[in-house]
Amino acid sequence: MTKSFIGSLLSRAQFALWSVRNPGGSFKEFYADSVAKALSGRDPQPSLGPNLKPGSEERARSVFQQLLSLGIGPDDLVVDFGCGTSRIGRLLIDFLEPGRYVGMDIDGRTLEAGRGNIPRLLLETKRSSRSFPAKAYRVWPV
């Protein structure tokens, strides 16, 4: 079995267990609860929150390098669906021209945590003047 298949099974099992404790709850609510737990920093997480598992930052840099090798340029527009706490987003924001990064996630707490992970000066110099419609997702244009 592959690692992603096992991860998928584990995620489904966690949602099933959560559903028993929260009858009628949606996956979005499950995800929001999971995000709240990750952001609390109690347990090491692979990508969310202040208590990241070892190697998380290196994986973010590796993904960023892969994007560069695929030809992403500073003037490209990047829409990051499920940007989480911006491990990769902050690298993209620094690389891209102002207004060329849009981070989106379904939970506003994640976006706020991500914004807190990016130096204020970087956010101020790269902020977009555009606004994007937020329907099912919370949107964070930078």
Description of the structure:
The chain is mainly alpha-helical and 142 residues long. It has one domain (26-141): 3-Layer(aba) Sandwich (Rossmann fold). 49% of the residues lie in helices and 9% in strands. The protein contains 6 helices and 3 strands, in the order H-H-H-E-H-E-H-H-E. It has helices at 3-21, 27-40, 56-69, 89-95, 108-116, 120-126; strands at 78-81, 101-105, 138-141. A 3-stranded mixed beta sheet has the order 1-2-3. It is globular, with a radius of gyration of 16 Å. Mean pLDDT is 79; it is low at 129-139.
List keywords for this structure.
3-stranded mixed β-sheet; mainly alpha; 6 helices; Rossmann fold; 142 residues
- Count the DSSP helices: 6
Reported CATH architecture: 3-Layer(aba) Sandwich
Strand order of the biggest β-sheet: 1-2-3
How far the N terminus sits from the C terminus, by CA atoms, comes to: 39 Å
Spell the H/E element sequence.
Answer: HHHEHEHHE
In CATH's first tier, which class applies?
Alpha Beta
Cα radius of gyration in angstroms: 16 Å
Give the overall silhouette: globular
What low-confidence regions span 5 or more consecutive residues with pLDDT below 50?
A: 129-139
Largest sheet, in brief, is: 3 strands, mixed
Class inferred from helices and paired strands: mainly alpha
Number of domains: 1
Tell me the fraction of residues in β-strands, as a range: 5-15%
The tally of strands reads 3
CATH T-level fold name: Rossmann fold
